[in-house]
Amino acid sequence: MAKKAVASLQTGSKRLTKAIKMVKSPKTGAYMFVESIMSPDLVNDFLNKK
Predict the structure, then answer these.
(1) How far apart are CA 28 and CA 25, in angstroms?
(2) In a designed cystine with 20, which of 5, 13, 30, 43 is the match (CB 3.0 to 4.6 A)?
(3) Looking at residue 16, what is its pLDDT?
(4) DSSP symbols for the chain
(5) What's the rounded mean pLDDT across residues 29-48?
């Protein structure tokens, strides 16, 4: 399950994207959010990865 909240961040000449993914914890079963700032090319790989 992925919460696809993607915001574009521009710093100088680099273009970055912040992706937020909702992940279920194997220990407690609760959901938590994992955030990462990366290149826009890598967003789909990040969201599809478990």
Answers:
(1) 6
(2) 5
(3) 87
(4) ----EEEEEEETTEEEEEEEEEEE-TTT--EEEEEEEE-GGGHHHHHH--
(5) 91
